[in-house]
Amino acid sequence: MRPISNRLNYMRPILLGAMLALWLLPMTTMAQSSNNYGSAYSSFGLGERVGFTSSMTDAMGGTGTGLRSPLYVNMSNPAQWSDVSFVGFSASAEVRGTETTDASNATSRATGGGVNNLQLGIPISSQKVGLTLAFRPYSHVDYRAIEEGALVPDEGTTPVAYRHNFEGTGGLHQFTAGLGFRLSPGISVGASADVFFGTIEYLQRTEFPDNDEYRETRISRSTRLSGVTGTLGALITKDNVFGEGDGVHFGASLTLPAKLSGDFVETLGVSLDRDTLTTALDGNVTLPLIARFGLAYTGREHWTFATDVQYEPWSSFESDFAFGGYDPTSGVNSLKDRLRIGGGFQVIPAGRRRTAGYFARTAYRLGAYTERAFYAPFDANLNTYAITAGVSLPTVIPVARFDLGLEAGMRGTTDGMLVRDLFIRGTATINFGERWFIRRRLG
């Protein structure tokens, strides 16, 4: 039987090919429309915000800004990339379900999913300088709504039933490349360049199901955006605070406001193949900054606790184009500042003992978070409450793990014209790492 090291050397070309295929997969599919749909609240702004940073932090309430781990590439703070000691690759997929209820107790259900995160960490100098590349979503729009009614063409005539179908798809993607530097055993800093790009599409179809004299009309609105910004981060660690082998970590990161350039195309007509009117405009969109603060405690090799705060001032959002809740022409702006607070913990019963039983080497995670949404329809502040959980399963390769995560929560309320979302999301992540680029010794 071949030693594990020899088998890994044999598998390297295969693993590298699989990595490249997974990196190219979202690039080739992101422009395709999906038949799935989700929350109606994704119609506001540039869509529902997505905050996945790593499978570890995701299962711990989304807490990661102050959390150090040599096994995971954490996207919440570039200063943590200085901990990279081996080439690490991570790929995540998710499936989500949403149940929406309105004031009349009418209920609808929706599902969706797909690849949502790809990360690659490369040590330039082991545990001193690390390079990270990542591709992940920033926001997604995926909703569908129906409005039915009747119109009276002339006085005394029979009402004509109609149906308005509202659909939204797309969102923004984010590509990140950056470096983390360890200045001293207790201080690390990092920086990255973040490229945003994507297309948001809205479609309104008006149908007259019981009358052949009226033709279906369509209004299609498509906004394509792209731009670049940067993220700065810092991490401070104090070891042996309450006992030998423990540590307290404080991290902070700041993503600068991003000015995106774009074009807007509106098409009117009886079908999108036979247009009657098309309007094209150029303009800019300014995304707000993202400020993160995190505190973590690692108790020797078994326990990890973490808490995070994230703030985004969407009240300062600016755009030359109209989006849900924002219209520069009429001056409507129902976007508010987003605030997210989370906490969680992880326990590994065996610590680093590789000879322990399988379930003792498994990592168990639990967390929770609350979020004040960045949109406020009808001047109502909407909050999200959710719990998270997950396990990290060891494999025959010491630096490879298979993570499973679960998130369940509630968003919004059924008061007035609002709706309440009950959602559940499951994730599966492959985390693989190995020491590459090692100079062989002769003799």
Structure, explained:
By secondary structure, this protein is mainly β. The protein has one domain: Outer membrane protein transport protein (OMPP1/FadL/TodX) (Porin). A 14-stranded antiparallel beta barrel has the order 2-3-4-5-6-7-8-11-12-16-17-18-19-20. The protein has a two-stranded antiparallel ribbon with strand order 14-15. A hairpin with a 3-residue loop joins strand 3 and strand 4. The radius of gyration is 24 Å and the shape is elongated.
Please supply descriptive tags for the structure shown above.
single chain, 443 residues, Porin, 56% strand, disordered N terminus
What global shape is seen? Answer: elongated
Seen as an oligomer or otherwise, the chain set is single chain
Question: What share of residues are in beta strands?
Answer: over 45%
Report the average pLDDT across residues. Answer: 85
Q: Quick one: biggest sheet?
A: 14 strands, antiparallel, barrel
CATH class: Mainly Beta
Secondary-structure class: mainly beta
How many beta-strand runs? 20
What name is given to the CATH topology? Porin
Poorly predicted regions are 1-36
Distance between the termini: 26 Å
Overall tally of domains: 1
Identify the CATH architecture: Beta Barrel
Determine Rg (CA atoms, Å).
24 Å
Please estimate the helix content.
under 10%
- The tally of helices reads 3
How do the SSEs run, as a string of H and E?
Answer: HEHEEEEEEEEEEEEEEEHEEEE
- Order of neighbouring strands in the sheet with most strands: 2-3-4-5-6-7-8-11-12-16-17-18-19-20
CATH superfamily: Outer membrane protein transport protein (OMPP1/FadL/TodX)
